[in-house]
Amino acid sequence: MRTTWKTHGGHRILYSDYSGLGTDVETLAREVAIAKELTLKQPDGSVLKLVNVADSVGTPEGVEILRQSTADTKAKIRRVAVLGVTGLKQLMAQGIARMTGQTIRYFDTEREALDWLVSDEKAPP
Q1: CB atoms < 10 A from the CB of 121, how many?
Q2: Is 72 exposed, middle or buried (0-12, 13-18, 19+ CB in 10 A)?
Q3: Where does residue 16 rank: exposed (0-12), middle (13-18), buried (19+ CB within 10 A)?
Q4: What pTM was estimated for this model as a whole?
Q5: Mean pLDDT, rounded, for 40-60
Q6: Burial (CB count <10 Å: 0-12, 13-18, 19+), residue 78
Q7: Of 3, 75, 96, 122, which is least packed with CB atoms within 10 Å of its CB?
Q8: How far apart are CA 54 and CA 82, in angstroms?
Q9: Cα(28)–Cα(3) distance, rounded to whole angstroms?
Q10: What residues form DSSP beta bridges with 99?
C-alpha cells in the first residue's frame, strides 16, 4: 500500500504516493481507491493531503480517476499539496482542480509541502 498516514508538526497528513507509476493505471486506480476510502472516513474539512505524482504519466484514464476521486472527497479535504507536477502535468492538475473546485498547491520538496499543509498560510485562489 502506497497510501499512508504521516505526522508532521503534530498533524495527521494523508500521504498518497503515486510516484513512479508511469502509465500503470491499474495501480493508480487501486491506490486512489485506498486514499478515497481513508478520506471518506474523516470529518468534513479535516483532511490534510500530500500527493506525490513524480515520474508518473497523466494518461486520460488516470486523469479521470484522479478527477472523480477529488470530486468525491472534496468535502473532507482541508488542504492538498502536490509534489512532482511540472510542465504538462501541472496543466492537467490545474484542470482537475478547476473541474472539482479543489484548491491545490504545488511544491518541489516534501518538506515545503508538509510545512505548508500544517501552516495557517492561505492557498492561492
Answers
A1: 11
A2: middle
A3: buried
A4: 0.85
A5: 90
A6: middle
A7: 122
A8: 9
A9: 11
A10: none
Instruction: Name the amino acid, one letter, at 104.
Output: I
For residues 33, 53, 14 and 120, what is the CA-based torsion angle, rounded to 10 degrees?
Answer: -140
Of 43, 52, 38, 27, the C-alpha closest to 4 is: 38
Most trustworthy range by pLDDT among 2-16, 44-58, 95-109 = 2-16
Please choose, from the candidates 79, 74, 72, the residue with its C-alpha nearest in 3D space to the C-alpha of residue 49: 79
Q: Which of 82-86, 100-104, 108-112 has the lowest mean pLDDT?
A: 100-104
* Total number of residues shown for the chain: 125
Which cell is 57 given? 504519466
Sign of the Cα torsion 26, 71, 50, 8 reads: negative
* 121, pLDDT greater than 70: no
Instruction: Please state whether beta strands 3-8 and 77-83 pair in parallel, antiparallel, or not at all (unpaired).
Output: unpaired
How many CB atoms within 10 Å of residue 74? Answer: 16
The residue among 94, 103, 30 whose CA lies nearest residue 62 is 30
